Every structure is written in C-alpha cells, then in structure tokens.
User: What shape does this take?
Amino acid sequence: MFVGHAIFDENVRKLIPEDAIWTTILREPFKLYRSIFEFFGWGRRFKTDFETFARNFNDSHRKLNGRYHVWYDLNLPRRDFNVEAAINQLEQQFDLIMITEQFEESLAILSLM
Assistant: This one.
C-alpha cells in the first residue's frame, strides 16, 4: 500500500507491483473549490461570495494558485485539457476512484474488489 500525498506519475507506478489494485481518493470538486476559495481568502480579495466567483470564473482566476488541483495531482495536462479524455485515461489507470465525501460508500465498493 502506497499512502501519502504524491503526484501520480510513472515514478509512482514503478514503486507498486503490476498486479496491485489501483485506487485513489479525491474530494468532490465543488466542495474542493469552495474550500480553496475560503482558504486563500478570495472572497475578501475580490469582494465577492463563492457563488458569484464561481459563476464568473475565468482564465485570470486560474492563475491565482497556479494549477488545477485534481488535474495536477493526477498528472493530467493542464493546458488544452479535455474532460472526457481525462476521464477515459483515469478509467484506464485506476480500478477505483473514491470520493472523500462518500467515504463509507467508497469503502464498501473497495471491499468487493
């Protein structure tokens, strides 16, 4: 079992046996970005609430913290990304992608593997 916060790439794959069950756990995206918004104080900085900020999100906002957290952690391209292609890639790389906010359900599915 490889546990810890690491960027998923070929170096990680080399550490784990080929026949391993590949899982990862992610935060639900809306809750993740609300957390980032609050952590970095963007409401005060931009004098807005989260809903307004999210509705008006644009390329200049993407530069605020320099990366897309989930894309970055999973080593997906951050330019010209295609959500459908990313999902297909992740489905090939992982046997199970768990969601933190649905942890008990995710563990139930994991127990069946």
About this structure: The beta strands are 23-26, 96-99. The CA atoms of residues 43 and 49 lie 6 Å apart. The longest helix spans residues 29-39.
